[in-house]
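Chapter review: from sequence to fold.
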Amino acid sequence: FQIGLTYQLNDRLRSSIGYGGLIYEDNNEKSNKKLQQGWINMMYKPFKPITMGVEYVQGERQTFDDQQGDDQRVEMMVKYDF
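The token string follows.
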């Protein structure tokens, strides 16, 4: 499942927040049992062909043999529309 919300603050600025998760039923010792991730981002369009963005993501996973992992990262992007 995944759920999110996007809000247009003005003509040049928009933001999104979301959460997603996967839950598996197959019991394979080396595979994931549960994955979940949340994120928030901001996109800025200073002029027509350029969009810049920054996003913070936090996630975690659990395997069937009870190993756990955490993920936190900040991602940045610049997009040029031809």
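Two observations follow directly from the output. The beta strands are 2-8, 13-23, 32-47, 50-63, 68-80. The mean pLDDT is 93.
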